[in-house]
């Protein structure tokens, strides 16, 4: 079917079920950002492949609500599909609920699949519509009846990590969660989010592209802990190891049945990380306590073993990035390089590194105007050929058994303009401001976001995405609960958290600039005014200086840049051959 035909099929099914509006979120029963093929419902229905968005369909309108990261991409991908782009004013907001509330009369029926909507999202929809006498039904999966070749759930194997890799045993982690449960006076707890499950059980898998997770649910009930997983994913040895941690194993498909049979007086679940269908399966006799999964914050704070491994993996990734950019510079004049071919080459170079498992997200290789699309992924139709001129933005990362990386660099392929140089320098200045920040304990991400943006704001520039996000340890490249963005998220940046700092600037139709390093938050100094923290930069890859307009930088920025590039050379030089070392030496010269 074409996308128009799919939309028509959805509307026919809506009419047959007397549904006036149907909502399709970008999610799965685990409220994941990156999805198994079975749950890429928005892509199937509309053609939009971004990782954030919501479809709302009525009899006479079909819209995709998404944020500024995807405006250009969505406009292109939705052309001719019957869907229209609706630009979100606030990233992550459920503005489609307000839109429906303003247009639907009393007595209308709005439906969605409760497996794809978090408890929090479902509640926002209900709060907006129920007071207006609009019926809300969270148990309708229209796509299941019309998506004839819908992919099955993944069946790849999972595996366990040793304590030498993770720094903490499963028993210790489970006990820490139980302590939190006791403090909240609950005897049951549901963990649906796949990275929380992976962290708690020291288990990894291959069920979601780029994210080393395995589909499953983890239940705490009384003194019992049960993992619901496809049984064939684990070896007998792994089952025995989990058994030693008193973890029972049951089939994945039995999870919802287990919830509906709960005997506990109270259960803890995370409304942002639990699907509505799971929430609605909890017996009425069980009180629901809604709060952040205890494991989510525990996971975000890396222990010394995880931090040490991550520092080591940055050397491997830095070597790969050095070889990649050297190859680009040398071959662009003599070989036909495209956005797709260079992304493939970067993965090939990374794969030569020890313990490489996969990329951590689809590589964003944006040449010239494509660099202005923050989440661009080249297709056969859009695939641009590089020339020895203009700017190239590469945002990429790797999953290694000893850590996860995420890095963005912009390089000149030749003949750059004065305007490009100014924009690049201001973005670099912003990144340095964030990296150099000293801040009081308890500082929130939105405060760090504002400080980082200041050099751009001062010149009436800005960017539409957040300044940074948490990063997992051989886990999801986007990890909560903390974020560095303008949203008033009341989660402090704690010692041991790994975050990205990635300001940008995008001129639609011309070029895009983003410079990204990962940092580790650490204690700095305590005095009469309180405890202060700072960032240790983890990413080890040169920052291009031929794009810098030194007159726009203060001395502290110049000093930081020179010190950083010198550090990069010292960390990587012994891992490079003579030619590579000479090339990097030139790239890291002081300005």
Automatic annotation (TrEMBL):
Coiled coil: none annotated. The keyword Metal-binding applies. It comes from the Bacteria. Keywords: Aminopeptidase, Hydrolase, Metal-binding, Protease. GO terms for molecular function: metal ion binding; metalloaminopeptidase activity. Residues 6-129 form the Creatinase N-terminal domain. It holds the Pfam family Creatinase_N. GO terms for cellular component: cytoplasm. Residues 311-520 form the Peptidase M24 domain. Residues 532-591 form the Peptidase M24 C-terminal domain. Belongs to the peptidase M24B family. This is Aminopeptidase P family protein. It comes from Sphingobacterium phlebotomi.
